[in-house]
Amino acid sequence: MAILELIGFGSTGWGALLLLGALTTLAVTATALAIGAVLGTMVAGAKLSGNWLLVAIGNLYTTIFRGVPELLIIYLIYFGGSSAVTAIGAAMGYEGFLGLPSFAAGALAVGIISGAYQAEVFRGAYLAISEGELEAASAIGMHRGLRFRRIIMPQVLRFAIPGLGNVWQLSLKDSALVSVTGLAELMRTSQVAAGSTRQYLLFFIVGGALYLILTSLSDRVFNGAERRTNRSMPAAALGRA
């Protein structure tokens, strides 16, 4: 009964705080995935462009942000960004430390990491498109914009969904590292609850269970999206031109 009171939703329970932390984790992950999608699309386009300079920039980006530890990137974005903002403030006559918002810094850091992985997902998805489909689209007179909208984009999304599901799970777990910035996401709230009650094992198990629930639900969403996209025939886009 005492355990239920500790993790419940009453005045002495930590349940509401843990759920709020889980929602914050989802918000950080979703924002990071959106940022990563933009960066990943740009980097994938650079690597597929055939221009040696753009290819080199794209390779450098993916090599750095897939090879450097995630925690170090978060430190660099949060503390380095805060130092830069403080220096700008000092130049404008403001005295004191100016820190980046924890949510923004954390989502940006995880998004940059996510972008490196999404770039490879999008690049692989584009290369999986049948050359015959692209040639057929050109043969019936599709211009470049229509070909991208009707053939390339739907096919890339179709082939990318499994990989994006993996990137989502990776970002969901990386969001736990954002706790070093002080953001009250699921890992941070679990630590606060454990430290306040001295029930470390209990609250870390509860936190782990909530992460498993989030990842399991995410799996169902991405699996459902994959099944739905696989129902449609890829060549049907040509018939709608």
TrEMBL record:
Chain segments annotated as transmembrane: 14-40, 98-117, 200-222
Describe the location of the ABC transmembrane type-1 domain by residue ranges. 22-223
Question: Which SUPFAM superfamilies does UniProt cross-reference here?
Answer: MetI-like
Per the annotation, which location comes first and is thus the protein's main one?
A: membrane
| Superkingdom of origin | Bacteria
Membrane protein topology class: Multi-pass membrane protein
Could you confirm whether the keyword Membrane appears in this record?
yes
* InterPro entries noted in UniProt: AA_ABC_transptr_permease_3TM, ABC_transp_permease_HisMQ, MetI-like, MetI-like_sf
Query: Which locations, inside or outside the cell, does it occupy?
Result: Cell inner membrane; Cell membrane
Molecular function per GO: transmembrane transporter activity
Q: Which GO terms describe its cellular component?
A: ATP-binding cassette (ABC) transporter complex
Swiss-Prot/TrEMBL keywords: Cell inner membrane, Cell membrane, Membrane, Transmembrane, Transmembrane helix, Transport
Q: Identify its protein family.
A: Belongs to the binding-protein-dependent transport system permease family. HisMQ subfamily.
Protein name, entry field: Amino acid ABC transporter membrane protein 1 (PAAT family)
